[in-house]
Amino acid sequence: MSLLTGTNLAKSYGPDDIFAGLDVALPHGARAGLVGPNGAGKTTLLRLLAGLEEPSAGVVQRARGVRLGYLQQEAALASEGTLWEEMLTAFNALRSREAELARLETAMADPGQFAAVMERYGPLQHQFELDGGYLYETRIKQVLGGLNLTPDDYDKPVAILSGGQKTRALLARLLLEQPDLLVLDEPTNHLDIHAVEWLETWLNDWDGAVLVVSHDRYFLDQVVNTVWELEFGRVEEYHGNYSAYLVQRSDRREAARTEFAAQQAFIAKEQDYIRRNIAGQNTKQARGRRARLERLFAGRDPNQTLAAGPRDGGQIKIDLRTSLRSGDRVIETEALAVGYRDDGKVLFRAPRPAAVARRMRGPDRPQWRRQDHLPQDPAGRDPAAGRHGQARQQLESGLLCAGTRGAGPRTHGGRRGAERAGDVARPGARLSGQISLYRRRRV
Ligand SMILES: Nc1ncnc2c1ncn2[C@@H]1O[C@H](COP(=O)(O)OP(=O)(O)OP(=O)(O)O)[C@@H](O)[C@H]1O
Ligand SMILES: [Mg+2]
């Protein structure tokens, strides 16, 4: 029995059909990543599965008693208490047993009651210990620390925390609650690289099921073993992590293209035969072939092609060559830092202007590698690759668009553009510094 299933799910908003006929199933211990372009309906599907919205058609079934923890996209913890108090609520059941134990300890002081109370206290205390009753404060500290919430924050009212801290606080509470299924909508958006890596480890050490939407391919590679791709109103399931999904998707699309071409050739051949023979000696065979073709076209306009060709997500292709010669300096940055404004966290600082100018002249990657400002990959990998490379691509896209659209990477689609191109990147923002684009640029 699956933990959760969705059968024939459809969702429309007014005249807009987001998807229809979706069948999905999450087994116990699932590690599923949901990917797809912006606006494909990922959040909508999560909300249907989490029971927060009703489908327009179809049913969602959850296993009896299943506990589900849902982190909404861009959600923030709303609470009147302090951060620490809010984390304690994840252990309410355990803490009421703790209070009961304390009450029994007081009662034990009365010699007349001691034996009777002890009989009750012993098993209660044993179970309390087995359930981690003496460890929950340590667990809270571990999870808060992993998500970059420091002891200085513990006693702060949640209301005064930054937006990013509130989101991390909500994620922390969900992790501490340890539901049977964690449904996470873009959980890494407010995490720095260390916190993302901590979350990967935490999820990998955990037994429960996870369904996660993320635009961070490195995170998905570490965490999921199944990918649901939601595109054009359909879900396709792939086994393996994100990298495996990319390979399989490319194979599937190639196979679909081949099948489509073969089908088109077959139709053309049949139509040609029918045209040449319908009025001649072979009219019987031609009529037979026409009937067979009509069955294939059943319900469709016979003047149109039988099947739609395989559809590819939009690929942005930009040809940046130009014959114009410009000055050597094309872009200049001054003390530019890229990171998360909410938390004042710097992901990295831009390299020296001269290096940017050289970079823009060609694919001279080593120029970037030599920059002291690029963060070192903790695993010792090429700093121009992996996550830091991902962040660097965002910087480049930010640099390229900043002067022309007046927008940073987040709005331009350092995020959206990258996703459409099949790349996935966490959104960043320009924290400080200046970007100047020179008028006669050659990029
Ligand atoms: N309450 C609503 N009323 C009307 N349209 C909605 C509503 N919620 C979502 N939509 C539309 O449904 C579509 C799917 O939205 P959804 O938020 O599920 O996409 P998504 O795949 O999560 O996108 P993103 O990657 O940007 O988070 C979008 O076109 C969106 O505008
Ligand atoms: Mg969404």
Structure description:
- It is a single chain.
- The protein has 443 residues and is α/β, with parallel strands linked by helices.
- It has four domains: 1-77 and 169-240, P-loop containing nucleotide triphosphate hydrolases (Rossmann fold); 80-160, no CATH class; 255-298; 392-443, no CATH class.
- It contains 16 helices and twelve strands.
- It has helices at 42-49, 83-88, 92-108, 114-130, 136-146, 151-154, 163-177, 193-205, 217-223, 242-277, 283-296, 353-361, 366-369, 386-405, 409-412, 416-420; strands at 4-13, 16-26, 31-35, 57-62, 68-71, 181-185, 209-213, 226-231, 234-239, 331-340, 345-349, 429-437.
- The strands form three sheets. The chain has a six-stranded mixed β-sheet, sandwiched between helices. Strands 2-1-4 form a three-stranded antiparallel β-sheet, covered by helices on one side. Strands 11-10-12 form a three-stranded antiparallel β-sheet.
- Helix 10 (242-277) packs antiparallel against helix 11 (283-296).
- The longest helix has 36 residues, at 242-277.
- It is flat and about 115 Å long.
- The site of magnesium ion (MG) has 4 residues, from helix 1.
- Magnesium ion binds next to helix 1.
